[in-house]
Amino acid sequence: MVRRTFSRRSFNKTASVTAAGPFIHSRRARAQETADVIVIGAGLAGLNAAGIMADSGLNVTVLEGSSRIGGRVWSTTKTWETNAGEVPIELGASQISGSYARVLDAVDRLGLTLIDQDREVLPFSFHMNGMHIKAGDWADSPANPLEGEEREIPATAYGSTTLAKLNPLVELDDWLDPRFSDYDVSVHDLMKRNGVSEQGIRFSTVSGLGTEIHSVSALRYFQERTRGTLESQFVGPLDEDGKPIEFWPKNILGGTAMLPRAMVAQLPGRVHTNKHVAAIEIEDDGVDVRTLDGSRYRARFVISSLPFTVLRSLSIWPRPPGPQFQAIQQLNYAETTRAFCRIKEPFWQEDGFEPSINSDGAVRMFWVMDNHSGEGEHRGMFVVTGQAAFRVSARSPEAASAYLVKELERMRPASKGQVEVLRYHSWGNEPLQRGCSPMFAPGQVTAFANEMIIPHGRLHFAGEHTRRLEYGMEAAMESGERAAFEVLDRT
């Protein structure tokens, strides 16, 4: 078994925990299984927490509500062709960045193989106000609502470029610092008070920020932007022309889901799938966990890695304190809907516009991935976020796929009959995720972002939504590590 070493735990302390044996409680006889720790959720956060604690000598049981492991790491059986060969379509966790230290360490320890990601998106044209516009014509187009130098900013970049100028954060955890609570307002309000024109604010909703500019805290965007700035420092050595010698980001050979599978294979404890947790009862000397099928589990501690959108449907007794309860009840996830496509022939060669498209309609973005030959089949992806995604995903997968293709054909008649949807996915419709990323509303960072991760008795919290410094897959691993050390410090 692959083992880790931890500076925070001495061997003697770990040994004393192990020697103490399992706890004894009057309810133990009624429990189907007892453990030192129960981890709820077999995504990267829960599995990283479970692995760290197991390597430190604790007896760990993992309960997963679905029939598969991985959470938002989901490699499908449907594949598409890239320069790296035939690879699975990734519904989530689609890339590993050079700064993902914990993820890269796990990949190395578990003997997995990284491959270059082949997802270079071809240039964008724009469809705004009913007009199809070439990228080079955007600055002078009558569909461009902006003024002055702002007209030169590509439509796909206007929202993020404008918001970046207003970002006061420097350190990765500044977003949690009360000094910046004045920025815990909607993106709309922040732009308005900083003199961004009404046309610019309105245009931001179709240029990357979405209609969520009214409902999401600017601090949430700034946190990811600040972390993204750090990413640029991990390009590795450059060649004589100043280009990176090694290509990033990466994928995992066989699919990103190989990572959680390998993590499970290293766990000495049990991972139970199809165990949808219904109730968590916290007592002075242990925690009872009950699942919908009537099973009961008992442990000294519990780590929940469930998104709060899911955790709020569980019975937790006693109820968490004010700010934490508020977080569980109110912190929502953004919706992302994607349709992964095969493009039979390069239709952009017929209509003369750039291959990818950014629009102000239901199809916010359609990415065309470079096949590096220019001819023949390409890969494409509909990327719909925010309220537009909720409207699209209200349809059945078949109806939503047909709708997206029809909308693309309306904007680009040359695409008719050339786009085939291979796999459609809505994260908002997944009952055990209910969205793809946490979205703090205005005021919520100040109200509960710091308090929401504090252990509630013997119940600890992990998951990408409890991020502190990271984002994406690395944030999930970070949160699992933090929760594991919290428990280890109490044993």
Q: Tell me the count of domains.
A: 3
Structural class: alpha/beta
Distance between the termini: 23 Å
Question: Which fold name corresponds to the CATH topology of the largest domain?
Answer: FAD/NAD(P)-binding domain
Give an overview in words:
The protein is an alpha/beta fold and 491 residues long. It has 3 domains: 11-71 and 255-331 and 440-488, FAD/NAD(P)-binding domain, CATH 3.50.50.60; 118-154 and 332-438, Polyamine Oxidase, Chain A, domain 2 (Alpha-Beta Complex); 157-243, Guanine Nucleotide Dissociation Inhibitor, domain 1, CATH 1.10.405. Helices cover 28% and strands 22% of the residues. It contains 15 helices and 21 strands. Strands 1, 2, 9, 10, 11, 12, 13 and 21 form an 8-stranded mixed sheet that branches. A 7-stranded mixed sheet has the order 7-6-16-17-18-15-19. A two-stranded antiparallel ribbon has the order 3-4. α2 packs parallel to α8 (258-265) and α2 runs parallel beside α15. The protein is globular, with a radius of gyration of 24 Å. The model is unreliable at 5-29 (pLDDT under 50).
